[in-house]
Amino acid sequence: MFLSVFDMFKIGVGPSSSHTMGPMVAAARFLDLLRTSPFHFHGLRASLHGSLAFTGVGHATDRATILGLAGFIPATYDAERAEAALVAIAATHTISPPGLGPLTFDPKRDLIFDYDHTLPGHANGMVLRATDAQGDVILQETYYSIGGGFVLTAAEQAEAGGKKAKARADVPYPFETAQEMLDMAAASGLTIAAMKRANELKFRTATELDQGMARIWEVMNACISRGMEGTGILPGGLKVRRRAKGIHDALMAERGLNMTAPHTINDWMILYAMAVNEENAAGGQVVTAPTNGAAGVVPATLRYYLDHVPGASTARIGDFLLTASAIGGLVKHNASISGAECGCQAEVGSAAAMAAAALAAVLGGTVMQVENAAEIALEHHLGMTCDPVKGLVQVPCIERNGLGAIKAVSAASLALRGDGIHLVSLDVCIETMRQTGRDMHEKYKETSLGGLAVNVPNC
Description:
Blueprint: H1 5-8, E1 11-13, H2 17-35, E2 43-50, H3 51-54, H4 61-69, H5 79-92, E3 94-95, E4 103-104, H6 107-110, E5 111-114, E6 124-131, E7 137-147, E8 150-153, H7 154-160, H8 178-188, H9 192-200, H10 206-227, H11 244-254, H12 264-281, E9 285-287, H13 297-308, H14 317-334, H15 339-342, H16 348-362, H17 367-379, H18 397-416, H19 426-439, H20 452-455
Parallel strand pairs: 2-5
Antiparallel strand pairs: 1-9, 2-6, 3-4, 6-7, 7-8
Helix pairs in contact: 2-4, 9-14, 10-12, 11-12, 12-13, 12-18, 13-16, 13-18, 14-16, 16-17, 16-18, 17-18, 17-19
């Protein structure tokens, strides 16, 4: 098992990694399949199942699927070009993927939201089909969007069979559990970030690694900045007003005033996270951390460290991201980062654990304190449901990221006050999260069929 820092932190587009980025990636994979096929294709069709159907419109799954079939990918997404493509496809009922030529595709007829048939492999399932001139399906593939922009075919999901992949033997520190991570750190004398760096260097040069991480933070930080300047109403029909700019303006006006309360620092953390998630809700460029729905927690915590902690250094950004990705990889490997699979504990909970560990690390914590910080943050998100109102990544998601950042900082601080010895291990907490997600009713797992989603007016 090896998940790169660039697997956990992927540059993409909002509002959802599993419902927007995942379907776009799946469509790109399907196009690759068509390009290597001996058949001559005439048209395309798609059906969305489970959570992709129930909250697909709110998450722009329909748009993402169409754009993916047209050749768009998250990493190079251009919003203006995408809008033009959608208009053209709707008008001509034709889609023209690169290397495949014109194919018939009527969005109203050929994209189906199937609310009645959940596919067996995962709550986020979709089937893509290619047809001949008579309209008969001659090639199809089932894909599962398993969270964080990760996509598996039905065969790949079946091969996994719910079993965890074994750690890769070709990396220096192939830890699969937090305990293995602690043992390897004790034996090597290295930090989590140093072990993670050594693993990464098996696949890329130090320059490539450092430049890639710098790019990740550049996009994260730019997202915060755009969010703090954005105004107006978020799309989707809930009429949610963007608040980050107003909060930022008020905090700037209060700076230096003696009347400012100490707890105002919490407002800065919430501001940074909300800025990211308002950008995500608006369909802007974000970084999965580990998902879009939880994209605000890690950058908010890193921005808090850089802007508000005395002695903070930009030289530690790489260590922050490497530590966070190591923790995120453990959660994904041993449980889930998918809201459709385990609820929001798997998204904001995982993000808070990642951020808490990373902050504890750059503040000088021992490996045991770093593991403790991650455990504290995740433990206090256990049982959190995923119940987005109207299927939009807005309520309660935007504010939830802000509170997740506060929990991350608090967890790191609490862990650093101790010696790293604690009763509940991170491994136990991750397994508990997996079991809780397994037992959680489906209506509380990103279907918008329970919780706030049915108790708040949608219009």
